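[audit] Reproducing an earlier prediction to check determinism. Same input, same settings, fresh worker. If the tokens differ from the archived copy the diff job will pick it up downstream; this log only records the rerun itself.
[audit] input (380 residues):
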Amino acid sequence: MEELHKEGILYDDIGPEYIIETYDPKLDFRGVLVIDNTNLGMGKGGIRMTGEVTTLEVWRLARAMSYKNALAGLPFGGAKAGIMVDPKTITPQKKRAIMESFANSLRPLIPGKYIAGPDINTTEKEMEQFARAHGEWESATGKPATYTSSKGGKKRAGLPHELGSTGYGVTLAAVVAAQARDIKMEGASIAIAGYGNVGVFAHKFLQGRGAKIIAVSDSSGTIYDRKGIDYETLLAVKTKTGSISSYPGAKKLSRDVIYELTCDILIPAATPDVINEKNVGRVMAKIIVEGANIPMQEEFEQQLHKKDVLIIPDIIANAGGVISSYAEYKGFDAKKMFKLIEEKIVPNVSEVISRSEGTVIPRQAALKIARARILAKAKK
């Protein structure tokens, strides 16, 4: 099929199927939903709320979700949504009104074409607001465990991403990658860039496996200690102060230097494009596990691959969140959800590493698998 590029968006044999832009003049906010592909099922992807989010960014994320869901073997297509508001500039009451307005604007597409979920600056609280405004429990996943449904006589409860599903999947990906490079997880040095939901739980689960977290960053900067940064202590500092900078005994560094530290495993778990033309030549990690969506462009993955850096791409590494979403949709409990994440991620990471030996980077190997699965289900 001939490909078409328009304003950076690629239109090809996968999608996008829908690009919907919304505007609420009363609340003065714009939103966008991209449903990239529904061959395997209804589009699934979270809603991020930032002042900088664009339609192009949402499309890139929706395409990643198409591949991620296909690789995870889930009956979901790919989608993503964005609300163009800086949440730091509005009240909690207005944020709630915005979530409810956005839910109502997407009513014709839910649940047949799209199911929402949490993302940057949206949590279990916003997912409950979204679902209640829409009127269907199934319209969003990542809801609070206290928000239940008894539809069809079966009681189902929310499985909030705050249980740590994405961070758990990232941990499993790191373990498999370390084994492939003969690195013992016990004592392995790890740097985690970003200390939100993904980074916090990656820290917890990796420390639980004996790894040494030597550096962590958030918007306030990087803290660094070769002896290791304790999860419980750092979480308490972050909870109390809102940043990691007051962690006792650690060296304070600039935020972006974390991508250049010598370590066994680097986990970018923040925003897109953090590894780029400015710093790719100074990356010193042996393994990169992409906890965030699109932390670097493929050309930079190619450069690092030539330096023998093993990169586990986002479309596999951070799939724990969407696997949890499927578990919630099916009415599983937390224990069954975590088991499902392990069953999906461990063999997928192993297969992609196996297929990427030689000149093919792991992302290309993963995309080949995902595209084949999506196009095999193409609508007649």
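[audit] rerun output stored. Observation attached for the diff report: The CA atoms of residues 43 and 114 lie 5 Å apart.
[audit] end
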